[in-house]
Each structure stands twice: as structure tokens, then as C-alpha cells.
Amino acid sequence: MTTDLVQEQIIDDFSVFDEWLDKYNYLIELSRELPAIDEKHRTEQYLIKGCQSRVWVDAELREGRVYFSADSDAIITKGIIALLIKVLNGRTPQEIIDTDLYFIDRIGLSENLSPTRSNGLLAMIRQMRMYAVAFAAKQQEGGLQ
């Protein structure tokens, strides 16, 4: 499934809710579905800078595709990172770099987050793309598959 199809599915999932309280509850549900990150990755090295809550993100490249794991101590934030992973997980580094994450605006997420959560969202996206850029560079050097 392409990143656009996944984003359209997310938009459809959120369209059934009229109130933002219901959308927040759905984010909480999504946070429960996110697999736990390995405890060894709950360290400062994997902590996203710029988030009000604590968010840890790790990524690995397997067979040319990037796989993310993440966790947060805040359930809404954990739901948001679960959405990002849903769209970006299992993609090539270049796909991650090139993906326009338009679902964020289309579901109203950006306009309904506090400024600190919006900054955190941008920091999570930036970190996930930085992993992709690093993996793409290593692939070009022939160092990773």
C-alpha cells in the first residue's frame, strides 16, 4: 500500500468523528496498539528533542526499508507517533524523505494541537526523516542494505 493510500485510510478513519474529543480518544486507542520499544532504546540517545513529553524513536534498515519503533510517556503523543509510523514504516529511505504527510492537516491535527505539541510533532517528523537521510547516505556509500 502506498503512503498516499495509508494517509487516505487515516483520513477516512478520522472522518467518522465530529468532535475533537472523539479524535483524541481515537489517538489514545492508537497509542495502545503501538508495540513497545525495546527498553535499551528508552535512553537520551533516542529521545526526541523539542517535545514537551518524552518521545523515543529508533529506526533500523532491513532489506532497503526503514522500520521504526517508538514510545512516549504521553498517550496522545504516543498515538500521534503511531500514525506517523503507520504511514512511514517499511518504506525506503527515499520514500520517507519524499512523502508529503498531508494527513496531518486533513484530519485537523495541526490546528488542534497546542503549540508545544505541534513543535513536538514537527520534531518527530524531522527525526524520522533524519534517520531516512542517514540510511540513504549509507546506501549510496554501499554500506547498508
What does this structure look like?
This protein has 145 residues and is mainly α. It has helices at 3-15, 20-33, 75-88, 93-98, 103-106, 115-141, and strands spanning 55-62, 65-72. The chain has a single domain (3-139), classed as Alpha-Beta Complex (Sufe protein. Chain: A). It is built from six helices and two strands. It has a two-stranded antiparallel ribbon. Helix 1 runs antiparallel to helix 3 (75-88). It starts with a helix and ends with a helix.
Strands ordered across the widest β-sheet: 1-2
The largest sheet is: 2 strands, antiparallel
Query: Which consecutive residue ranges, at least 5 long each, have pLDDT under 50?
Result: none
Q: How much strand content do the residues show?
A: 5-15%
The amount of helix comes to: 40-55%
Radius of gyration, rounded? Answer: 15 Å
Please indicate the count of domains.
Answer: 1
Query: How many E-type strands?
Result: 2
Task: Write the element-wise H/E pattern from the N-terminal end onward.
Answer: HHEEHHHH
Shape: globular
The average pLDDT score comes to 92
| CATH architecture level-2 label | Alpha-Beta Complex
Protein topology:
Elements: H1 3-15, H2 20-33, E1 55-62, E2 65-72, H3 75-88, H4 93-98, H5 103-106, H6 115-141
